[in-house]
Amino acid sequence: MYKKTIGTKKDSFVKIVITRYFNTAARQKCRYCRMQPPKPKVKGGALIALLLAFSALLNSCVEAVPPAFDFQDDLIIIDALASTVPGTSYATVKQTSYEFGLYRSKAISGCTVKLINADTQEEEELFESDESYVVDPNFKVAPLSRWLIEIRLPNGETYRSSVEATPEQVPIKSINERFNSEMIYDEGSESYTSGHEIRIDFDDPGDQRNYFFYQYRAYEQEIYCKLCEYGVYRDGECLSQINNPALTKEYYTYLCDVPCYKISYNNDINIFSDEFANGKPISNLLVAKVPYTSKQDILVEVLQLNVSQDAYKHFRTLKDLVDNNSGFNAPLPAALIGNFTNLSDPDRIALGRFTAAAATNQSIFIRRSPRSEPLSGDFKLPQPEILGDPVPQPLTYFAPCIEGLYRTSDLEADRLRYFEGSALIPQDL
């Protein structure tokens, strides 16, 4: 094992000193989150906060090497987007903390969040939903308009972004998918994750440089709305049965009381710059990887976001961090401090970024029920309560479909039509 100092970065906001300890054998063995080799140390806690910011955005395992840091808690992390596609603008506001030996980022509830048009002073207030702040489903920004976002925390602190100009929209011409049984290799488990690779075609405008950031949102029918491990569902919650000696089942599942749809999002960063393809047709560009975790048919909506060069650099640096490809002498991620100013205390920084994006979307419906490949992940088969089970009476079979970012019973008609004829539970389950 040896010690190597990467470098320092100092500006008006923060000084980052990174010292990383390397164990070559462990480093070669570990690629994902299952193993924990010797770890980097960051004084001031800025790097881990940035990684937490990304984990907040994607809700997934984000670092190949889980880091150990001299951690600075109470940092504010803001991720916000204003989009030209109706209903896709949002903001997340989180605060770092260190609890029970773990680094966390916790959503801040009760904020006042509003988008402000820099030219007309028009305001659009966002409302809180499932640890995020979202807009009215019909709200969208116009291409070439200029926006900023202002966020007031419950303690009175106010953060305001710089003004972002919305680029022009670049439409997606076509979309296709291909199933790949070896989509992602996990060196930790020495196995592959299978899934659907989503690719698009579009014509890149030749009169300007363009920078793209890709997201997806996927819908599939929920098989059940509640799972209780070593317990049963009663009075709106899982009632523990861990001390029930007659209990033989590890879990029970409960059907949705209404037709319900699970919503999932991308868990990686996909970006594209037209630096070497300006004005050319772009074909078969990989923009999303959808894990094969269920045999339910799935509707995938791809969002192509045309963003500023600064926003692209932000996402590219995050991608380098997450993919662990930035190298020992790569620029430090101090630039990821972003474009927010604390109006109450200019010396108190906020990590993250507000981005205005010209977005276009395209959908593809994937029929997965005929597939015979094994599922990825830890899928649990339906296991309802049945007569004779040693559980509190009366038996319970249903749970509510709770509306939020990850579940809905109110699917729009243009999305609902894709699911006509889809079985709720594939026969091979």
Write a structural description.
- The protein has 429 residues and is mainly beta.
- The protein is 9% helix and 43% strand.
- It has helices at residues 24-29, 46-58, 309-323, 413-416; strands at residues 2-10, 15-22, 40-43, 76-83, 90-99, 102-107, 112-117, 123-129, 132-134, 146-152, 158-161, 164-165, 174-186, 191-203, 211-221, 226-229, 231-234, 237-240, 251-256, 261-265, 270-273, 281-291, 298-307, 340-342, 350-366, 398-399, 407-408.
- The strands form five sheets. It has a 16-stranded mixed beta sheet that branches.
- A hairpin with a 2-residue loop joins strand 5 (90-99) and strand 6.
- The radius of gyration is 23 Å and the shape is globular.
Quantity of strands, as a count: 27
Percentage beta strand: 35-45%
Structural class: mainly beta
Global mean pLDDT? 81
Number of helices in the DSSP assignment = 4
Measured distance between first and last alpha carbons: 49 Å
Unreliable stretches (pLDDT < 50, length at least 5) are 1-46, 58-70, 326-332
Q: How can the largest sheet be summarized?
A: 16 strands, mixed
CA radius of gyration: 23 Å
Shape: globular
Provide the helix percentage: under 10%
